[in-house]
Structures are given as structure tokens and as C-alpha cells.
Design a protein that fits this description.
With about 550 residues, the chain is an alpha/beta fold. The protein contains 22 helices and 16 strands.
């Protein structure tokens, strides 16, 4: 299965595309990032600016295009403090849906902390011991204490680098008085929690986010053999972090831009970020931190995998998103899979053996199969009128990969599988284009017959064989056990199929006759069939073999 995860943060928007493996691990196959600073000026009850909203929407539109080009099966997206706190956050999310079709979940700070913890302990393989995870974003800082299996404590603090820079970082370089006020503010917000974590004890501290990685790049860039592209899992001593803090606080913007390893896009935020991270690490009493380049987006992936293991296994089994979507709808509606597959199989057999009559192609063949798989999902609501319930559920069941007309055609085939027949007086049927209406007529007839041929839900028929005589068709049932109930039900429901065939239809066992059409008893095998043509009666023994139904004829005209 291929999955895209999008993190709409206060400072930047990230997306990763991953391939989920059968063992439920994952591999990143693509990634993209845009630093749009969505939360600038919008924190603490402000409004998201029009310019940053527009930039964010453009970025998300590009991300959607990239995800589609990578053929992802699912997009999961989450927004954090900027959208959560802004007065117009809901309006922004409505625009996201309208422009991109992406539905974004606004998550709480505690949920954000939990998801980041999942990613961090996965990234560094912290299988044993207790881990502190620190994630510094633009609007908030999240912290957790926990193990690889569970989070014991999770907190979110309004200590993001954009928020702190807007409040304390007006000077360039930062005045000592502003730095002291910033440290005091951090202690007031998070000091008690940090003391609690320190008292509890821990084995390691992992830091995520661009702020931590930028500070790590600056601190480690002077080392021999240091590769800035391989900073993940690097260990940064607390003393080295403190030196970087002192360094960046004392520099103005122009000199910070010349620091080796510093991302120029973070040069204005790195000062408050350095003071924040150094203060937090100092209050924890940690000797070092482990740098991690996995964060919320990877946490979204891991959380999705944990909650959707069965769906991921289904994606491996059904790589075609259309077929997988049909199976998922059936499972959500507690379908009868064996019966549904038998009906679909028999309907396809009828489709293939009557190609010369209906003239339909592979696209319509697939509609018939999917309608067969879903024809009984309405029973999830009630057996009474379940054909009508099936229509509603298929039409509104969120089938993916289908055009609207295809969904309507499949739903209508299921609607007519039991009673009624397609009529142009039915608005939904009349709204279809003529080719789709003809497909629904033919498909509904096949589906009704196929449903009858598994009346017992016992999957007794191994195959069916349609043969054409001069004045009728014979449907031979090859069964693994007596199938009198199926033959009886098929005879009762033969009218629609006879209209498609243009002749009467008899139902027979491949070995001995079952119930026949009341007006047209079938001849014994080998006996002459009386045919009338050109004013005389002829006797013939010839029977057209199965699969060779006369070609060139078409279904009845679309008159209703």
C-alpha cells in the first residue's frame, strides 16, 4: 500500500509518500516541504493572513498532484497549532477541501505529542528504557515521556519558535534583557513539567523538528567526516548545544546567515529556538540529545498502520484501488462474501456467453462483477427492500477510482437484481446516457439470474452453460450437488434474461432435466427439436455449443 502523510504546521508544510511493506514497516519514496509560515501573526486567537493562506493552498495543491503521480492509495493530513488557534482556521480548512479535496484533521497538542513520540522511538529503535521526546514547532513545543510501547505523559506548551520570536525576538542581535525574559517565560510555562520528568528518570532524550536539526548542523559542522545529509541519529552533547546558543544569540541576522550548516530560511527563528532547546535540556539535566529527522508526518503514517492493518493487507491483496474499494464497502456492510463472489462469477459467465447479444465491453463487464459483489449490501440495513438499500449504500459508499456514472450504473444494477426493472420513468436510470442504460438493462438481467442460481447460498453450481436452439435457449447447470432450489428460483426469475436473449429460456441440469419454462418444456437430449420457418416445419438435432450464442443481435430497444 502507498500512503501520503501531510503535516500542516505553523512554520512549514511537509509531506512524505511511503510504501508500506507486508511486515507493516514503511519506506519513504518521496518527500516535499514548503516553508509558508502559515501561523505568522495568527497565533493566540489571531487570523491566518490571506497571503500565507494562499501560499499554503498552492503548496497543498502541488502536494496533491505529487501524491497522485505517485499513485497513493490514501492521503492523511493533520493541522497543528496555527490552524487550531486561528479565528479563521475552519474557513481555511474548507478552502483546502474545495481546492484540493484533502480533508485535514485538526489535532490537539497532546495528540500531536503522541504521534511525534511514535515516530521518534520508531526512528531510533528505542526498544528498551524510557525516552523523552521534544518536538519544537512554530506555534508549540510538544514533550512526551514513555517507552516504545506507550506514552506515559504527553504535554503541549505554547512555546513554538514563531510565537516566541514574535513576542521576544524583536532585537537583532537579541538583547540580553530579552533573552532573560525569554528564559523566565520558558521556566514559567514548562518548568514544573520538566522537573516532574527529571524526577521520574529517563534513559535518553530525542529531539525532532527543523529547529533541532538546524542547531545540530551548526554544532556538528566543524567535525571531521561530518555529513550534513546524515545528521539523523547523531548525538549532540548538551555542552555543544549551549555553545551554539551563545553563538547565535550574539550574532545579528547577516552574520547568522554565514554560519556553516544553518538553513537560511530559519535564520530569524534560530535564536529563540536555541534559547528554548538549551533551556529545556538544561532543566531536564540531560547530558546529550539524539537528533531525529522523523516527526509528525511519520507519526501519522505509523498511527495509520496501527489502526488499519487489515486494510493494508487488503491493499496488498487487491492492488487495484477500484476493486479494493468495492471489497472494503462489502466488508463495512457485513456482506456474505462467498455468496457475493458466486453471484458475481455466475453473472460474468452469463456476460461472456452472451457477448454477441449485448455488445458490451470490458468496462461494463467490470460493472457487472462489482454489482454482483455488492448486490446484497443493503441487507446491512434491513432484508426488507434490501435491493433499494443496496442502491443507496453503493451510491453513497465512497467508492474510489470510479466516475460518477459508473457508480450510478453499478448501484442501479444492484437495485434491479431482485424486483422491478429499469424504466426511463425512474429518474436515476433516465439520467444515464443511452450506452449506460443499455448496460444496466443487460447487467441487471444477468445479475437477477445469477442471484437465483445461488438461491440456497450454498455455491452449488460449478459452472453454467448457455446453449442456443432455433426457438429457445437452454441453460445447463453443472452442479456439485442437487440444485433443485436454484433451478426453481432461476425459472421464476427468467423473464428479464429472456428479454435480453430474445427467446424463451429453459433451465436444465447438465445430467437430467430440472424444472423447465412452463410454456416451453425442454426436449430430451438427442431428440429432434421442431423448428418452424418459411412456412414449413423442420426437425433438427443440431444445438449450438456453449459460448457460441448467435452474434449480431442486440438487446431490445431502449423504449421504456
Amino acid at each position: 500500500m502507498r500512503l501520503a502523510a501531510i503535516d500542516i504546521g505553523t512554520n512549514s508544510i511537509h509531506m512524505i509518500v511511503v510504501q508500506v511493506k507486508p511486515d507493516l514497516s514503511f519506506e519513504v519514496v518521496d518527500r516535499e516541504k514548503e516553508m509558508v509560515r502559515l501561523g505568522a501573526g495568527g497565533l493566540e486567537g489571531g487570523r491566518l493572513a490571506d497571503g500565507t493562506q494562499s501560499a499554503a493552498l498552492d503548496a497543498l495543491q502541488r502536494f496533491r498532484q505529487l501524491a497522485e503521480s505517485r499513485q497513493v492509495d490514501e492521503i492523511v493530513a493533520a493541522a497543528t497549532s496555527a490552524v487550531r488557534e486561528a479565528q479563521n482556521g475552519g474557513e481555511f480548512l474548507a478552502q483546502v477541501v474545495q481546492r484540493t479535496g484533502i480533508r485535514v484533521r485538526v489535532i490537539s497538542g497532546v495528540e500531536e505529542a503522541r504521534l511525534v513520540h511514535l515516530a521518534a522511538v520508531y526512528a531510533v529503535e528505542a526498544a528498551t528504557g524510557t525516552t523523552v521526546v521534544i518536538d519544537i514547532g512554530g506555534g508549540s513545543m510538544e514533550m512526551t515521556l514513555g517507552t516504545a510501547e506507550e506514552v506515559h505523559i504527553a504535554r503541549s506548551f505554547p512555546l513554538g519558535v514563531i510565537r516566541l520570536t514574535e513576542r521576544f525576538g524583536s532585537g537583532d542581535p537579541l538583547p540580553r534583557s530579552a533573552e532573560r525574559r525569554l528564559v523566565k517565560h520558558i521556566r514559567q510555562e514548562a518548568g514544573a513539567f520538566l522537573q516532574q520528568v527529571r524526577s521520574s528518570g529517563f534513559d535518553r532524550v530525542i529531539t525532532t523538528s527543523g529547529t533541532s536539526l538546524s542547531l545540530g548542523q551548526v554544532a556538528l559542522s566543524g567535525r571531521r567526516l561530518f555529513d550534513s545529509d546524515r545528521i539523523h541519529h547523531s548525538r549532540l552533547p548538551a555542552a555543544a548545544l549551549h555553545r551554539v546558543r551563545k553563538q547565535v544569540v550574539g550574532l545579528d541576522m547577516q552574520r547568522r546567515l554565514r554560519l556553516p550548516g544553518l538553513d537560511s530560511r530559519r535564520a530569524d527563528l534560530v535564536v529563540s529556538g536555541a534559547v528554548l532547546l538549551d533551556t529545556v535540556v538544561g532543566l531536564l539535566g540531560a547530558e546529550e540529545i539524539i537528533l531525529c529527522d522523523l516527526a509528525l508526518r511519520e507519526g501519522l503514517v505509523l498511527d495509520y498502520i496501527r489502526r488499519n492493518g487489515a486494510q493494508i493487507a487488503r491493499a496488498d491483496r487487491y492492488p487495484d484501488i477500484r476493486r479494493r474499494s468495492v471489497v472494503e464497502l462489502g466488508e463495512r456492510c457485513r456482506w456474505y462474501p462467498d455468496h457475493s463472489r458466486q453471484v458475481a462469477r455466475l453473472a460474468l459467465s452469463l456476460f461472456d456467453q452472451t457477448r454477441g447479444l449485448h455488445g458490451l465491453g470490458p468496462r461494463e463487464r467490470e460493472w457487472v462483477e462489482f454489482a454482483g459483489l455488492l448486490h446484497d449490501v443493503g441487507g446491512h440495513i434491513s432484508y426488507i427492500a434490501h435491493d433499494e438499500h443496496s442502491y443507496y449504500l453503493i451510491r453513497n459508499g465512497g467508492l474510489r477510482g470510479f466516475e460518477p456514472e459508473e457508480v450510478e450504473a453499478i448501484a442501479l444494477m444492484a437495485r434491479y437484481h431482485r424486483r422491478g426493472r429499469p424504466k426511463k420513468s425512474h429518474p436515476a436510470f433516465a439520467a444515464l446516457r443511452r450506452p449506460a442504460r443499455q448496460a444496466v438493462r443487460a447487467g441487471a438481467a444477468m445479475l437477477r439470474m445469477a442471484e437465483s442460481l445461488d438461491r440456497s447460498h450454498g455455491q452449488l453450481l460449478e459452472r453454467i452453460e448457455l446453449q442456443e436452439d432455433r426457438d429457445r435457449f437452454r441453460l445447463l447447470l453443472h452442479a456439485r450437488a442437487p440444485a433443485e432450489l436454484e433451478a426453481w428460483a432461476a425459472r421464476r426469475q427468467s423473464e428479464a434474461m429472456e428479454k435480453l436473449l430474445g427467446k424463451p429460456l429453459t433451465i436444465e441440469s447438465a445430467d437430467a432435466p430440472y424444472a423447465q419454462h412452463p410454456d416451453h418444456p425442454a426436449p430430451l437430449p438427442g431428440s429432434p427439436v421442431r423448428r418452424r420457418g418459411r412456412g414449413r416445419v423442420r426437425e433438427e438435432h443440431a444445438t449450438r455449443p456453449a459460448g457460441q450464442v448467435a452474434r449480431g443481435r442486440r438487446p431490445p430497444a431502449d423504449r421504456d
